[in-house]
Amino acid sequence: MAVTKVVVDPVTRIEGHLRIEVAAENGRIQNAWATASAFRGIELVLQGRDPRDGWAFAQRICGVCTTVHAIASIRAVEDALDITIPPCANLIRNLVTGMQFVHDHVMHFYHLHALDWVDVVSALKADPEAAGKIAASISPWPSNSGQYFKAVQERLAKFAGSGQLGIFANGYWGHPAYKLPPEVNLIGVAHYLETLDWQRDAVRLHTVFGGKNPHPNFLVGGMASAINVDARATINGARIAELKDIIARARAIVEQVYWPDLLAIASFYPEWTKIGGGVPNYLCYGEFPVDIKDTDSYYFKPGVVLGNDISKAYPFDEELVREQVTASWYDYPADAPAEGLHPYKGETMPKYTGPQPPWEFLQGLDKYTWMKAPRYEGRPMQVGPLARIVVGYAQGHKDIQAIAKQAMDTLKVGPSALFSTAGRTLARGMETVLIARQMDKWMDQLIERIANGDVATFTRDKWDPSTWPAKAQGFGRADVPRGALGHWVQIENGKFTRYQCVVPSTWNCSPRDDKGQTGPYEAALMDNHPLAKADQPLEIIRTIHSFDPCLACGVHVLDMEGNPISEVKVQ
Ligand code: NFE
Ligand code: MG
Predict the structure, then answer these.
(1) Pocket mutation for ligand 1, best pick of 15, 67, 68, 285 (most atoms within 8 Å of C-beta)
(2) What is the span of the domain harbouring residue 405?
């Protein structure tokens, strides 16, 4: 049978500009190329800036993960200058970044990924009473009634009757790969709309602690969140009560809507626990510290798992990170080794030599993307929710093992099911439940500290550049919704002289390296991966969305051309 070439450009319901090109034969994908098609230059913008301002520039790398580059930046500067922040500032950072995870993951599941599994048009055929019974059997969520689902169905029928599906237009509705009964499709659509409403509530936590969302305020040395229970314009008694309520509502959405829906939907797609694994190596930098210098204090501890072997986790050593540009539109200094450069020696020297169709890709030598290729000890690595769950599982993390077991028992699968497209999507749900539960604890710890009179959220120590060494360098580590995030900075005479970000979507959307090893998106598409209809590449979208791509982050400049791009091009 002839080889079919399919190009999806751009992939939608992601952040940024991603082109996926595959070669398929007999309904299976044989080869895949992931191309980031817009260059950004924030690393270059940061050079020469005051390190105390870096977070505000770095944060603009992305509007989706709106907190993460700020926190990585301030941690890099604090590491370089040896600044220890007050405990309340650390708790506030955990609450702000924790809510970023919860918000981002729920939005990703319902608004970016669910419609790969949920057929909106089929929901019109559902029996609302039966949908109510199914929903009530898996969750105590109060609106799970036949009446509620009937109202949602009527709303959907109005959209469809007017010939305008609006936000639901352009799906592959009716594709044979959709397997849910109409009632479960209706539950999915109802919760799509309900969580769209809830997300405004969730991000109020960012506005209280950080003044606004997106892009709440951060601060080198702490957080710009004044606490005084008796004052009006600070974090006071009323704000604290409001924050407790926001966290309780977020937790309820996660535990009573997202998680039961995810398990229910996954149970109709058992074959997807055997598809789309790809790169068998996982990397986690760790997150949610009590003390950033003590990695044992983190809720998710740093670690590495190799070869899908969850009987062993290896320690993470940041000195083993390299970035290559073998297949990327960048230049490196002539003396750069084949294995790539550590970020402290990293360079951002854009050199566009394309477009060269990956179809013509020859022996790993042609350049085809704006993504660099990060490698850990020479290996491509998966990062993100699945990496955190796999690493934590291998480390014996009790909460992770318990929630993974719940999912495996419900779906009647073993741990190897994690290494798949469904495993990636399930792992995102697992960690959202765990983080939402932790947020309750962090809020209580913050309240206890305030009750005991500890209200410091900022240290002035080292604020004055005259106290800084003439030269310093630091690693800002974070684990963020899409995975391991590092900012490596060098400071001389009070200014950044080098700023390198190695970002989760750079790891996952990495192209080939000097040895021809594919990156995680590419490898996943080449792992037992079906493609039933070349003109409706739904399966490709499922696997790519399971990574929750963010191309803006990954290549860290806007497409100034404003190129018109077609939805799906089949050649
Ligand atoms: Ni723009 Fe980001 C996250 C970062 S992704 S979304 O999470 O860092 O690579
Ligand atoms: Mg970079």
Answers:
(1) 68
(2) 4-116+197-570
Residue 486 in contact with ligand 1 by CB distance below 6 A: no
Enumerate residues 6+ apart whose C-beta is below 8 A from 372: 323, 324, 325, 328, 330, 502, 506, 510
196 token code pair:
């769209």
550 is catalytic: yes
Go through 11-44 and write b for each residue having 16 or more CB atoms within 10 A of its CB, e for each that does not.
bebbbbbbbbbbbbeeeebebbbbbbbbbbebbe
Is residue 396 situated within a structural domain?
yes
Query: Mean pLDDT, to the nearest integer, of 506-526?
Result: 95
Note the pLDDT tens digit of each residue in 41-57: 788 899 999 999 999 99
Count of structural domains, the chain: 1
Give the total residue count for the chain: 571
Q: For residues 3 and 359, give the distance between their C-alpha atoms in angstroms, rounded to a whole number.
A: 12
The answer to whether residues 482 and 504 touch, using CB atoms and an 8 Å cutoff, is yes
Q: What is the pLDDT of residues 218-242, one digit of tens each?
A: 999 999 999 998 998 899 999 999 9
pLDDT tens column, 366-402: 888 999 999 999 999 999 999 999 999 999 999 999 9
CA nearest to 8, candidates 158, 29, 26: 29
CB 239 within 8 A of CB 247: no
CATH of the domain at 52: 1.10.645.10
Type of residue numbered 120: V
Token pair 């970023």 in the structure block, residue: 100
- In whole angstroms, give the CA distance from residue 352 to residue 560: 15
17, 19, 37, 62: the active-site residue:
62
How far apart are alpha carbons 474 and 154 in whole angstroms?
Answer: 56
Q: Assess if residue 286 is contained within a domain.
A: yes
In a domain, 506, yes or no: yes
DSSP 387-446: HHHHHHHHHT-HHHHHHHHHHHHHHT--GGGGSSHHHHHHHHHHHHHHHHHHHHHHHHHH
Give Cβ neighbours of residue 167 (< 8 Å, ≥ 6 apart). none
Residue 557 in this model has a pLDDT that exceeds 50: no
Give the C-alpha separation, 22 to 358, whole Å. 9
> Which of 62, 66, 107, 477 for mutating ligand 1's site (highest number of atoms within 8 Å of CB)?
62
Note whether residue 313 is domain-resident. yes
Rounded Cα gap, residues 319 and 24, in angstroms: 39
